[in-house]
Give the backbone structure.
Amino acid sequence: METWTRWLISPDTRAPKATIWMRLMTGWVFFWEGVIKFVFVNQGVGRFTKLGMPAPDVLAPAIAVLEIVGGLALVAGVLTRPFALLFIGEMIVAILSTKISLYLGHSPLPLPPAPPQIGFWAVLHEWRSDIAQLACSVFLFLEGPGPWSVDAALRSSRSQAPAEPRGLRVRTAAL
């Protein structure tokens, strides 16, 4: 369990430098989706209510805060794996709660404005941003934040800091 926790919280930062682009894109999309949930009620509480989510007046703002905080954390490369894991769960729930009913033709949400509006092809078209966010979150979960991240900077500073003995440290004055 300790190894898993260390892998999750203090990740190896040897992912490619280009990982920063995945973090920026994924983080900004989640950040702005969180902001939109507060700005437009039909994208926050209203949407969660239509989908039949439990306690939509609590859940929608909670998800919005997760997206804002987690999105900024991904952009900075802070706790990348824990936030990516949360976003993987969120995207799975989002896909299951919106795309099954679209496939079956009884979505409580407005149908797409142009054909295909229901069925297999509609789902393939409408889930493009969901599946992209899911795939990017899986990548960040597996690879970590990369070398250009706050996590990497913190890891580097910890490894370069001189080891201090545990316990009480006594200072002596130079004569």
Summary: The helical segments are 2-9, 19-39, 45-50, 56-76, 80-104, 120-126, 128-143, 150-160. The chain has eight helices and no strands. The first helix runs from residue 2 to 9. Confidence is low (pLDDT under 50) at residues 163-170.
